[in-house]
Structure formats: C-alpha cells, structure tokens
Design brief:
The chain is an alpha+beta fold and 189 residues long. It has six helices and eleven strands. Helices cover 25% and strands 34% of the residues. The longest helix is centred in the middle third of the chain and has 14 residues.
C-alpha cells in the first residue's frame, strides 16, 4: 500500500513549499527527524487513485481526533481514544465515496503513541507532548471511473476539532493540492 503514498510527498513537494509561507506552526528546529509540522486544527490527507486502488493516508495531531495528546491514563481519556480508534477503523463512514464506484476496504493501518504502538510522541522544547494519529487505508474499487470526488464532511463531523485538511490528490486527471474545511468538504479528482 505504501508504494504509491511514498512517492506522493516528493511529487507534490513544490505545492508544499508554496503553501509553507502561509502556515504558522509550532514545530521548532529540533533534531527529531520529523518532516512535517504539527499544527492543531489542521490535518493532512493524501489521496491516490491508481487503477482500481484508492489509497487514503490521514495524518493528524491527536488533539484534532481525541482532544488531547498526552498518554491516556484516566478512564475518560481511554474511552475517548477507544471511541476515536473505532471511528478510524471505518473509513467508508469517514470518507463519503460514490456508491457507484464500488469501493471496499482492502487494508488499513492505524498508528499513534496513544494506541500504544509507538514509544513516545515528539517532545516540544517546553516539555509538551506532540502525538499524531496516522491512518492508512487501501480500498479496492470495482468501478473507479465513477469515483470523481471524496466528501470529507463525515470526517469533519466525527472529529469536530479538525478545522482544515490539507489534501494532496493524485488521480486520473493528474495531481493537485487543495485545502478542505467543513464548509468546503468535497474534493474532486
């Protein structure tokens, strides 16, 4: 699944550079090896349609998904993490795709320090924890020609603290980068 998505950041690097001057983030110069800025309220989504395969890669600060970034120690926090993970495990409920495209989930991978599958998030110089949630989905579409757009409204509704999603698309009509919000949640190929 990652073969397509690994090429995406390099293919769209000029778009990222063009938008970088508009972005304010709090990812200072650290030697953590991170490539992406961590900005609350903002998520990133890579969408690749290659033949019958649709790949979606969502990268979001945990704050947008569960409302915090620290390790879940209280029962309430653990419940929030479990509920968010359950939602993330249902990509067809988060990404509204044309029924006629016949897309079915093939593979998925969810990763986050909050899920207990990573050592720690990045530590900010002031001691604040920065945890991200990454979701990778591969869907098989029986009629990909009918897939002309992805509606992100269910994603914005499920995770209301997400204010903006920077989307990078690669599809039959080429590649493009755009910004989605709850008010402008439909992205077209």
């Amino acid at each position: 699944m990652r073969r397509l998505l690994l090429a995406l950041p390099f293919a769209l690097l000029p778009l990222a550079v063009a938008h970088a001057h508009d972005e304010h983030d709090h990812d200072h110069d650290h030697d953590h090896g991170t490539l992406a800025a961590h900005e609350h309220g903002v998520a990133k989504l890579n969408v690749v349609l290659d033949g019958n395969t649709l790949e979606l890669e969502l990268d979001s600060p945990a704050m947008n998904i569960v409302g915090f970034e620290h390790a879940a120690t209280s029962d309430a926090d653990k419940a929030k993490v479990a509920a968010a993970r359950k939602q993330l495990e249902q990509p067809l409920a988060l990404f509204n795709l044309a029924q006629a495209a016949g897309c079915k989930e093939d593979q998925q991978a969810l990763e986050s320090p909050l899920f207990g599958d990573a050592a720690e998030g990045d530590k900010h110089e002031h001691g604040h924890q920065h945890a991200d949630i990454n979701a990778h989905y591969q869907l098989a579409c029986s009629n990909p020609g009918k897939l002309t757009q992805v509606d992100l409204a269910p994603l914005f509704k499920a995770f209301a603290q997400t204010q903006k999603i920077n989307v990078q698309l690669i599809g039959p009509n080429g590649q493009k980068g755009l910004e989605a919000t709850a008010a402008k949640a439909v992205v077209a190929f």
